[in-house]
Amino acid sequence: MNIQEIHSRLARAFQPWLAATGFEAIDPWIEVRPEGLPEIGRYLRDSQDLWFDMLHCITGVDDIELDAKKSAAKKAEQPDWEPHLELIYHLSSTRHRHRLVLRTRLPRWHEDTPGRLPEVPTVSDIWSAAKWHEREVFDLMGVCFVGHPDLRRILCPEDWVGHPLRKDYEMPREYHGIPAR
Amino acid sequence: MPINQVQPEAVEFDVHTDEMLINMGPQHPSTHGVLRLVLRTDGEVVTEVTPHIGYLHRCAEKIGEHLSPRQFLPYTDRLDYLSAMNMNLGWSLTVEKLLGLKVSEKTRHLRVIMAELGRIASHLVAAGCYGLDLGSFTPFTWTFRDREKILNLFEAACGARLTCSYITVGGVTADLPPGWLSQCEQFLTEFAPVVDELHAVLTSNAVFVRRTAGVGVLPAATAIDYGCTGPVLRGCGVAWDLRRDGDPFYTEMYDGYQFEVIAQTEGRYPQDHPYPPVPAAACLGDSWHRFYVRMLEVVESMELVRQAMAKYAAAAGEVDKPIPLKKKLPQGEVYLETEAPKGQMGFMVKSDGSPIPSRVRIRSSSFCNLSVASELCRGVLVADVPAIIGSLDLVLGEIDR
Predict the structure, then answer these.
(1) Nearest-CA distance from B333 to chain A in Å?
(2) Which of A100-114, B9-23, B161-175, B266-280 is least confident?
(3) CA B118 – CA B115 distance, rounded (Å)
(4) pLDDT tens column, B314-343
(5) Which of B11, B174, B299, B328 is the residue whose CA sits 20 to 30 A from A140?
């Protein structure tokens, strides 16, 4: 099934949750609103002709321009652009051999309060692969997956401060007396 | 058969003792690197396994956001350091997909030779170390002896044995030196009988079968649910191989090649081969099948190397040279997975138009394969934990990135 067909299937059931599409991209994608992720995910997995049974990867992207000049230029080019986080879910079906890129957009901080992680519903109850991938995105990108059974850091030490893959992350000067930079 | 099958005659399960937490690792020899497992045990029975990873974390993705794709290439060597060629290939193809770049026929066949030799080398380490985990030392020395020969071939081609950086964005660093193909041919001839010997000392060995058959049974649905790929998934009887089923940008590398996807479907393995039959105690998805799939893939890869050498020798023209070090990337985002020896290795590159990507993502196969370990090890005996972990063929460099 190609991306247009998948999109029209989703549009029939979940129109309010569909945000944007990128059919012309090298890897075509469908953007959904974060609150719709669990239901759309379950539908994608359980529909006989979609059957997206494998979640390959969850990627967090920090879309911010730290340089003020570049940021202004980007804003001039795309007036509705704001710094934000993106989550990208790569799915495929081992039965029908088709693939899908699903993405969603989050604020960088919950209610614009620095330090409060943005929230998105977990999909770990739909694909178990998300259990570790969501932990990784939480650890490195700072996204809170609501409903995750065990949301702990996975690659960094438990007492690490900050989320290293954020663009504005600064390495701490030291960690337990070990100089870090 | 239930997922956590234990032999009732071996242990009395109604006897309970005090619960004990046992730390396995991070420096335990049978964890294949710095992996720490916390076992919750009740006597000899493991009730829960919690893997702790991250000891080798170098934030490779962040490094990728500060280097151009060709500068990042040596870092991909250090992901799965047992199959650096395959890591180089995955990264190069991903960036080439973003650039819309197609390599020449000669380069394509050369890449197939290297990727499949890398697969053989990786599976040899997997087989040898797995034997070692289960108390059999001899096959370890044999597999390392023959892996050495592959590393010699790599050294002759690019100067490096382990961290090759040979397959690179746009092509390969250099064409093969004179006489390389006959060296490779000689290796394949010498190596063919070793496969039979390995089958004799491992696959059909009574002790090996007792330790692996029916141990750590992974149902196909659970494997797919956890995103397990590679021999772990194919060992469950799912014929899923990206060389055949993947992104067209990757599968066209194998256009014109004859090979089978190694998985037991409809009760049999695809190729007619002289290797040991499946023992009666083994059931689909257990450690024995995962091992067996790797052993059969070694033979399949040897066949692919032979085909690729013939095609490479017949191809006209030169091999492609790498792209300029600081070539500007087009704006966009691509994701590509390739069939690495341990499973599906995925790279994502996002670019805003400068020579340096704005985001690099590495999807590691061992990461997903390890995440299923806590399911596999629930209710097994302590001695079976190394047998199960070893059968997953993990490399921590790739898990921790």
Answers:
(1) 7
(2) B9-23
(3) 5
(4) 888 888 888 888 888 998 899 999 999 999
(5) B328
- Residues B286 and B223: their CA atoms lie apart, in Å, by 12
**Cβ contact, residue pair B61, A165, below 8 Å:** yes
Q: Is B373 on the interface with A (CB under 8 A)?
A: no
Which residue shows structure tokens 């590691």? B364
B361 contacts chain A (CB < 8 A): yes
Chain A residues closer than 8 Å to B61 by CB: 140, 165
Residue B237: which of B285, B283, B181, B276 has the closest Cα?
Answer: B285
CA dihedral (B253, B255, B256, B259) in degrees, to 10, reads 80
Give backbone dihedrals phi and psi of B11, rounded to 5 degrees, phi first: -135, 150
- Token representation of residue B297: 């893939």
CA distance A175 to chain B (A): 15
Q: Does A23 touch chain B (CB under 8 A)?
A: no
Cis, bond preceding B355 (omega within 30 deg of 0): no
**Partner B contacted by A110 (CB < 8 A):** no
Indicate the pTM of the whole model. Answer: 0.88
Nearest-CA distance A164 → chain B (Å): 8
Q: Which two tokens stand for residue B18?
A: 């005090």
CB-based contacts of B324, cutoff 8 Å, min separation 6: none
ipTM over 0.90: no
A101–B335 CB contact, under 8 Å: yes
Instruction: Return the closest-CA partner of residue B109 out of B315, B308, B320, B256.
Output: B308
Q: Which of A10-19, B163-172, B182-191 has the lowest mean pLDDT?
A: A10-19
CA distance A53 to chain B (A): 7
Exposure string over B237-276, b if 16+ CB within 10 A, otherwise e: bbbbbbbeebbebbbebbeebebbbbbbeeeebeeeeebb
The residue assigned the tokens 């294949």 is B32
A131 shares contact with chain B (CB less than 8 Å):
yes
Contact criterion met (CB < 8 Å) for A128 and B222: yes
Q: What is the count of residue pairs from A and B with beta carbons less than 8 Å apart?
A: 79
Residue in A25, A53, A165 closest to B333 by CB: A25
Kindly state the average pLDDT of the residues B289-297: 91
CB within 8 Å: A26 and B400: no
**CA within 13 Å, CB half, B14:** 1
CA dist., res. A142 & res. B331, Å (int): 25
What are B286's two structure tokens?
Answer: 């257990």
- What is the per-residue pLDDT for B1? 45
Joined together, the tokens standing for residue B129 give 């170390």
Chain A residues touching B361 at Cβ < 8 A: 57, 59
